[in-house]
Amino acid sequence: MTDALYLTDAYRRRFDAKVTQVTAEGVFLDQTAFYPTGGGQPSDRGRLTLAEGIELTVTEVRKTSEGILHQVSNPSSVPLGASVAGEVDWARRYAHMRYHTALHLLSGVVYRRIGSGITGNQITAEGARMDFSIPGFDRATAEALIDGVNEVVREHRPVTVRSIARAEAEKDPTLVRVAQELMPDVAVVRLIDIEGFDVQADGGTHVANTSEVGVARLERIENKGARNKRLYLTLDAPGPRGS
Length: 243
Description:
CATH class of the largest domain: Alpha Beta
Order of helices and strands: EEEEEEEEHEEHEHEEEE
Strand order of the largest sheet: 2-3-7-6-5-8
Number of strands: 15
Number of helices: 3
Distance between the termini: 31 Å
Largest sheet: 6 strands, antiparallel, barrel
Helix content: 10-25%
Radius of gyration: 19 Å
């Protein structure tokens, strides 16, 4: 299996690894900083460079039963056991981190004010959306929620990662905001802790401080059913740790 470096250090953009398996689609590595698609967050992109200087473009990354597969150009050119230097497309990764943390802020505001959970979400490098089960949702309500997000951004709260046993997580319904069918079957639950504001189970990458999120803007809202409402947001200029 692949050691997922992104789980403990979302800011790591370069790493060294060994090729453990080669398939027609791509390669498996003993460790990786590339985030695989999951939880509404798209996979990272970037490149792998062989010792000989040959560069392979990483176009998609996903989890499989055998580990984390890196789809690359011309995988047949990669020798089994080869050493590679990986580099994540940092602009894309950092945008995903900012938007993912922004959605946690939004979820926290909604949960505190309305008590609603999450029914879906999607992140891109240009924007994000989140679905909630909220009756009587309108633009004024959505604008107030975005104002709540920006309040926490201005508070410069630290964002940290910790883990607890699944049995412990299941005792606290506030930790799992997604619908039960969206909760992964894992023994240890990874938590994203926005200090003094919100704690949620999550497997994605996040910024280290809410100030890095930047100013959130409401793009639009959609009615997706009797109770399911969708809110789209965008973020202004990147935070201080972007590059």
